Amino acid sequence: MNADETKNAAEILDGLSITSNIQVRTSHGLTSEVNKAAADEDKKRAEDGRGPLRRRTYYRAIQKAPRSLPMTPWQILHAIGLGAAAARQGAGRGLAEHWGSLRYSQALEANRGRFLQLSAEGRDLLRSYKATQSGEIGTGFASLLAEHIVRSRYPDHSVSVIPADIALKAGWTLRSTGAGPRPEPLQRRPHFIVEAWQPGQPSKIFLVSSKGTHSSVHQVYKQLSTASAHAESVHVGPYGTVPYLLIGTEIPAKESLALHVLEAPGTTLLRPPGEKRGVDLDLALEQKEFMPDAVVPAEGGRATIPGFQVLPESFAWFSIVLARTEAAALTAFTGGGEPTAQYLTREQGRRHFKHDVHAKTAKLRDAEHHIHGIEFVGTDHIYRLNGTRVEAFSGLKKSLYVHLRDGHVNEYRREVHGLRGQWPGHSTSREWNAVSIRADGTVMAIRLRED
After folding, report:
1. H or E stretch covering 385
2. Which residue intervals of 62-208 are DSSP H helices?
3. Over the stretch 338-387, which tens digit does the pLDDT of each residue have?
4. How far apart are CA 436 and CA 72, in angstroms?
5. Which of 105, 230, 257, 312 sees the fewest Cβ atoms within 10 Å?
């Protein structure tokens, strides 16, 4: 019996609200190690005839990076759940993917130095499942760190972290067509697009490629070198100019977790040519069928290579893609259904959200709770944790939800932007063991059921 099996449900839930530190590591030495790992991989590829991997280069250590990030395990689960809410992996509904984050409710704990590490429960995994755990936890940490970095640089902006695959499906076919394997760059994509925005103004865009590993730091170097190839597949504006972050989460068995991060600095502004007013985000999203080509400068003119590129003439369309994909994720987090379907194109999975049907949730968006004086609407989920009934709730501030339910993305963004800095930061409340409220207006809370 491991140590976590002796904990009762109340102790586990209380642990979810304890703030711990996550180490953040970035340095010139990290850049050198990633470059070396890339060179080693390309050497192996040359030996078997594949040729070098196409990568973005010129990454560097992040200036003025935080040495650590304070956060609770419940905030991490919130980030994982929100990122998965609209993922529609396999035949599952977005809500099912979101509630999958609860599998990690016993996986993280603070050590004696108040740094976050795997618990005994988190270490007690089948080897085949570790890759899934490291990937999902890694993307959760990466989204939080990326949001923190971008928000600190643009404090007068709101920041949205948007799953890249869902956004890209509005313009390109990402799956294989059956005509043989696709070129390697089309098989690798960044995990997130980070948007720093103000209502009515052009957004600033960043790419995020993230990895996670239970192995040594040397595996982190290899993964970050591969992550640079994921970042290379997507271009916004001229080829090779969009800034990006490479984030690797090191999840050792007994030491504290660490985030390794590098960046390619720059600014990409979604300013459509000739546009003098803001893009109307309430417009229905138009499905495009772009060729998966990226234009690169070439001697005597230009050439194309496999990749996904958003050219300036499509900036207005892409602004709508990002805002409405975020709206889909937020409404999926509250329960999915028609409020989510309206924001997605066919290729993004609209039909999977058309009906309010889910095998494990009889009613959706029927729960309302006041938490820290704010009225939230969403969906609750009852399950057992070590034999004890537990209630988890995910929702959105009611006024913000009404805007999105009614298709008013512009109004949502105006209101949520005006609420910057006003959200309560308490990790518990009188009625809930653990609470996480994000700047996008979403809440995730958990408590014991007394009945």
Report:
1. strand 374-385
2. 73-84, 94-99, 120-123, 127-153, 164-168, 184-187
3. 899 999 999 998 888 876 544 444 456 678 999 999 999 999 988 888 88
4. 9
5. 312
